[in-house]
């Protein structure tokens, strides 16, 4: 009899074990955390199955063996202390047994410390913005937008859909395997949710707040996900694609990305002195419009009545040119119209505005050049971009002239006292290279994500507190320690710049010797 019952239970449980590898079950994933989550899921599932078998087994056995036709009479009682203790104690023990592994997994999921690479993920309607903040203690300034690349013809059912329909993007997020990747997640507009099932990550992106997650990918491959929060009309067109590479391949990709970033900045500067023909602007403008604008405003420029305004014959596209440039650059508050000033290059912005003003019989004849876009942007940001380019070119020239001896010579030279002009000039360049990605070139930060330095109590307060947070960072935030990343001259210049730029005007000058003394004091 016992053997028969064991065989019966096995027939119930064995199919469940094989079902675990099917497409209908939670996937095992490719990270240690995803494997822990999967094993926890299966453990709880089997416990639930065992409880169901025992409870229903006893119930059906009792019904069958104590039925009225066999002459059994029901017992007359209202309370049983023993039974009440049992059905309270047994579930309590089961819950504790479930809670222990679940708590361990939850604690591990929240441990973002000692990350090798930090990536900021920003959701916006309806794309993802990725910013690489640091990698192996090196500050990075690499960012790009990731937009769905599914052809419009497939979306409109004019072509056969591929296996990756609505799960493909133009620029995938690239990460190295066997490295701890920390994700800092926020949003520009509404609540999104960054969800990659293979990583066991599903974290809300909330405007004004920073949420965190992490992953250490164990296998090379392409992993897909999507926004898991109803974020608006095109919620279904917001996929996530992560390309996990071997470390050497990732290093090569990163080197190429840095070169591309420098080239992009140089091209942006060069484009300001170039006048493009109408043919060039219209050709590129159409490409940009189809890729970034047509989902809302439609390829024909007619929009979606009551949802997205038409551009064909509209007051914006045929009216004041400056107003048109302004809304494309800065977006429109309270609507789905985003700011494209940081998403597109100067030439792309000039081209798409030119296209909108001359397509669909608008025929205004207006040609917008990159210099007009640059002038319309914040002058401080425009100057900052040029300074950053000059800084990169200057560093490259120095590296080529004195590739090895320079570092040794600088280490042997005594720390000298620098003038305010020297500190501010060098500080601005280093700030744009190492700090502006978070705190912005204007020092205004990103509200709710990265604090402003302009007028902040930290920057205008005690020099020692300012110096301390730059050297040591701040636990629990994206502010990292820079003591071992930058030289004493660079640190002194950046702090001096922050305390005297954007109207802060504290008058404080921090010298390299001050940095050295502070570092030695910590040791």
TrEMBL record:
The Cytochrome oxidase subunit II transmembrane region profile domain, residue ranges: 11-113
Subcellular location: Cell membrane; Membrane
Pfam family, one: Cytochrome_CBB3
Cellular component, GO, one term: plasma membrane
Domain Cytochrome oxidase subunit II copper A binding, residue spans: 114-256
Keywords: Copper, Electron transport, Heme, Iron, Membrane, Metal-binding, Respiratory chain, Translocase, Transmembrane, Transmembrane helix, Transport
Keyword Metal-binding: yes
Cofactor(s) required for function per UniProt: Cu cation
Any GO molecular function: heme binding
Keyword match Zinc-finger: no
InterPro entries: CcO_II, CcO_II-like_C, Copper_CuA, Cupredoxin, Cyt_c-like_dom, Cyt_c-like_dom_sf, Cyt_c_oxidase_su2, Cyt_c_oxidase_su2_TM_dom
Membrane association type: Multi-pass membrane protein
EC number: 7.1.1.9
One of the GO biological process terms: ATP synthesis coupled electron transport
Residue stretches making up the Cytochrome c domain: 280-360, 422-502
Catalytic activity: 4 Fe(II)-[cytochrome c] + O2 + 8 H(+)(in) = 4 Fe(III)-[cytochrome c] + 2 H2O + 4 H(+)(out)
Stored SUPFAM superfamilies: Cupredoxins, Cytochrome c, Cytochrome c oxidase subunit II-like, transmembrane region
Main location: membrane
Superkingdom, taxonomy of origin: Bacteria
Residue stretches spanning the membrane: 44-64, 85-103
PROSITE patterns the UniProt entry points to: COX2 (PS00078), COX2_CUA (PS50857), COX2_TM (PS50999), CYTC (PS51007)
Functional note: Subunits I and II form the functional core of the enzyme complex. Electrons originating in cytochrome c are transferred via heme a and Cu(A) to the binuclear center formed by heme a3 and Cu(B).
NCBIfam families in the cross-refs: CoxB
Entry protein name: Cytochrome c oxidase subunit 2
Organism: Psychromonas ingrahamii (strain DSM 17664 / CCUG 51855 / 37)
